[in-house]
Amino acid sequence: MSDREQGDRLRGWLRGIEVFAGPLPEFAPEQTPDDPVRLFLSWLSDAVADGLRDPHAMTLSTVDEAGDPDARVLILKGVDGDGWQFAGHGFSPKGHQLAVHPRAALTFYWPEHGRQVRLRGPVTPGSTQDNAEDFLARSATARAEALLARQSQYLADTAERDQALEKALATVEKTPSLVDSAWTLYTLSPMEVEFWQAAQSRVHTRLRYERTLKGWERFRLWS
Ligand SMILES: Cc1cc2nc3c(=O)[nH]c(=O)nc-3n(C[C@H](O)[C@H](O)[C@H](O)COP(=O)(O)O)c2cc1C
Fold first, then answer.
1. What is the atom index within ligand 1 of the atom nearest the CA of 54?
2. Residues in the ligand 1 pocket, defined by CB under 6 Å
3. Where would I find the H helices in 91-152?
4. What CATH number has the domain bearing residue 195?
5. Residue 73 maps to a domain
6. Which residue range forms the structural domain that includes residue 85?
7. pTM (2 decimals)?
8. For the chain, what is the domain count?
């Protein structure tokens, strides 16, 4: 088979994969709350109530020093009037990127509901106390891994990793109050929050909240 035929076959196969299978919920933008946090929490609660997997997983997008984008999935740690929270190691690539460019985007997708939420805005690190509380709430192994401070570095030898992890775990177990000072609870304070509801008709519904001096304003968007 030629490369071209193979490419055509692959495109046909991808086109044939169903998306937005439904049944999908209705979304009435005119009946939404003034505050995007409330709408977000109601969509997240729907995802949890319907047993969707990893409903609090989201993609964090950042840019590196050269301006190149990067993205990875993280777990949502909290949401309040200040913004959406996530945690990571300050020495990881995302930690370095956020130190240089403290702005980011978060994307949630709940496939069974055909719902996407997108947020963009500045990111601030937590206070020493908030960071420590988040760190201490992690499992012993997760704390030991963080203490190694080697996330995303090349791994040449798994035996070396296992040994280092075992040593770090022993330290954590001996000193349970030990906190990694580079562990950070970040808050993204959105300037925009967009809610996107798929429809099987393909006439999707979009609503964007934009932060203004007067508070949140809502805008419908073309799909
Ligand atoms: C569902 C899921 C949840 C994750 N949660 C976290 C998290 O809360 N914090 C974290 O640092 N990495 C988390 N990761 C791993 C990240 O996606 C990523 O691999 C890691 O943070 C290194 O990213 P970086 O090299 O861009 O810093 C998670 C991955 C998945 C698939």
1. 1
2. 54, 57, 70, 72-75, 87-88, 92-94, 151-152
3. 93-100, 128-136, 140-148
4. 2.30.110.10
5. yes
6. 22-132+184-221
7. 0.96
8. 1
